[in-house]
Amino acid sequence: MNNPKQLAFPWNKINKSSLLGFYASKKNLELLTFLRDEIFLDDLYIYGAKGSGKTYLLQAMCNKYTSLGKTSFYIPLKHAMDYGTDILESIEKMNLICIDGIEEVISDELWERAIFDLINRAFLSKSRLIMTSSSDLQSLHFLLPDLESRIRKIQGHELYSIDDNEIHDALKYISNFASINLGEKEAKYLITYAKRDISNLVQILESLDKLSLEMKRKITIPLIRELI
């Protein structure tokens, strides 16, 4: 695998994820500041609940590096492990390596060793590592003590889920950023009758936008009812 940048994987689809498009709640401002800073290049370990936006941020970071003319590689371990550890060969040549779901390799000695070796190679090549997990650093228990020790040295930040009282502002921010015309009444209806989870709401919002374009209709409460 001499040139990983040219390889195509199912998860390498073009996406519009961007740091500016991510709603930064008060609790997440510090983390977003680090990610947006072009001078701060330390490795990061980001942990948070499902649906908090970890995958989105990793994809946004890859897009940011692309816009700066730099290389990046995104690895969702839940899917990437099906391809074998060879997928990690030579990727330390990338400017940024994003590993999504590091907890997936726990208790798999072959993969734990492969990740440990990658971290060491990335350190030597000065490739930046950003990892995500659903668990905080102290809750990780790998078979390899060296891997556990190495990962715990990485700067950790929690990605907080959006509070209920911020859901409305987050949905409006995201719709405005994406140039999706979501009215106030429609936003309140969506929040009231759909699952109050920002990840789920954004998926519905994107589907509504696509459907409204196809049908040449505005996003209305009846259209929302059809979808949810």
How does the SSE layout of this entry go?
Blueprint: H1 29-36, E1 44-47, H2 54-67, E2 72-76, H3 77-80, E3 96-100, H4 109-125, E4 128-133, H5 145-152, E5 155-158, H6 167-177, H7 184-193, H8 198-215, H9 221-227
Parallel strand pairs: 1-4, 1-5, 2-3, 3-4
Instruction: Tell me the number of structural domains.
Output: 2
CATH C-level category of the largest domain: Alpha Beta
User: What is the CATH superfamily classification of the largest domain?
Assistant: P-loop containing nucleotide triphosphate hydrolases
Examine the secondary-structure arrangement and name the CATH architecture of the largest domain: 3-Layer(aba) Sandwich
What is the strand content? 5-15%
Separation, N- and C-terminal Cα atoms: 44 Å
Structural class: alpha/beta
Overall pLDDT level = 92
Give the neighbour order of strands across the main sheet. Answer: 2-3-4-1-5
